[in-house]
Structures are given as structure tokens and as C-alpha cells.
Amino acid sequence: MNQQKHIVLTGVTRGLGRAMLEGFVEAGHVVYGCARDEEAIASLNQQFGRPHHFASVNVTDDDSVRQWSEAVLSQRSAPDLLVNNAGFINEPANLWEVPAAEFDRVVDVNLKGVANLLRHFVPAMVRRGEGVIVNFSSTWGHTTSPQVAPYCATKWGIEGLTRSLSQELPSGLAAIALNPGVIHTDMLETCFGSSAKNYMSPETWGKAAVPLLLGLTAADNGASLRVSA
Fold it and tell me: What is the CATH topology of the domain spanning 6-226?
């Protein structure tokens, strides 16, 4: 039997996050997750119970992330696997038509939110001397499309941030940028409308993604990977 892992996962209540949660739990691992929806978080705690635990956290708020990390690390060791999955996409529009507040939210969630998690969990992983960090990228972290410029910018940023982080980590740790592929999620519906339903479901995606994530090691440090399902 594989050794039980401690996994920290953001954006846990829906879509890809929910699919990963269910896959990790089914495989026998312990998940500490977060998302903003308090009602959905309460439902997860009721459904899964201990040793798993879920909290309502705003990843864009550094103090909120700090408090959550302290609570997690007071109960568990440093995570074996830290998955930055939380994401937000702008309503399709020409770049100059995207409202400033909406642009800020895309950047705050997709880039600054990731940095906040890294700031408060990576030191414990470094002290432990092992662990894997996965930052969710996108197909739009390698290509571009019109009307999603803010999202593309953040996912290109995740690729650069993750590669730079990989060069800073000591031996025994790894940072990987992961492109999940094109999956039928709420975010995809924002861009593709009704045609989003023609793409793979998060549940089907999770059957390929979870084993891939659990199989990552320090040897994968610096890689930019894609889930093939």
C-alpha cells in the first residue's frame, strides 16, 4: 500500500478541485482544503469528516491564508503535496473593456493567491526537506486567445513563477506547473457557453489527474506538464 500523503488543496468545493478531493480521499490520503463558499465548506466537513478538514479561506487575503496555514500546520506536518488550483476568469471582453476591478480579481486569485499559499506553506516544506508543489496553469499559459487576455497573462505568469520557484527550492522538493487541459467547468462555460458541455467532465478528468499528481516526485522539479486523459 502506498504511504498516506497529506495534501493541501485550494478551490476544493467544485469542478477540478472537487474531482481531485474525491480522488485523493478514495486513494486513502488526507486532504486539507479551502474555498470561499462557507456553505459548501460546511457540507464537505460534514460529508468527509476527520481526518480531512476544510476551511473558508480567501486566497487573495494574505492574512487569511497565514491564519489557515498556521491552523493546518498545527494539526499536521508540512504537506506532501500542495496544489494551487483556485482560479478565476474574466467575462470575455477586449482587454481595454475589462473593468479594472475584474482585471484585479483575475490577477489577485490566479497569481497573488498562489504566491500567498507558497509564502505560508513552502517554508514548512523546506524545513521538512521534501514535498511537491503543483501550480495550476492552463492551455492559455502557453497560447493566447482574444477576450481572455487577463486570464492568459496570469497563466503565462504561473509558468514563469513556477519555473523560477523550482530553481530556488532545495533538493528534495519540486515545483511543477500543470495544465489540466480543456475540461467542462464553470470557467469553461464562461468562455465557450453551451459548447463547453462537449468537453470532458471533471470526474472523468480526475481519474487521470489524481494518479499523475500522486506520482510526482522531486525528479519532476521545474517540469511543465499536461494531464492526458
Answer: Rossmann fold (3.40.50)
Q: Where are the domains of the chain?
A: 6-226
Residues 87 and 107: their CA atoms lie apart, in Å, by 9
Q: How far is CA 103 from CA 98, 108, 143, in A?
A: 6, 9, 19
Active site residue 199: no
How many residues make up the chain in this entry?
Answer: 229
The one catalytic residue in 10, 151, 175, 209 is 151
Digitized pLDDT (tens) for each residue of the chain, 229 residues in all? 479 999 999 999 999 999 999 999 999 999 999 999 999 999 999 999 999 999 999 999 999 999 999 999 999 999 999 999 999 999 999 999 999 999 999 999 999 999 999 999 999 999 999 999 999 999 999 999 999 999 999 999 999 999 999 999 999 999 999 999 777 566 656 766 777 676 668 889 899 999 999 999 999 999 999 998 6
Under 8 Å between Cβ of 187 and 177: no
Distance CA 159, CA 169 (A): 16
In this structure, are residues 168 and 115 in contact, taking their beta carbons and an 8 Å threshold? no
Residue 114: CA count within 13 A, CB half-sphere:
27
Q: What is the pTM of this model?
A: 0.94
- 224-to-26, 45, 63, 180, 207 alpha-carbon distances in Å: 26, 33, 30, 11, 20
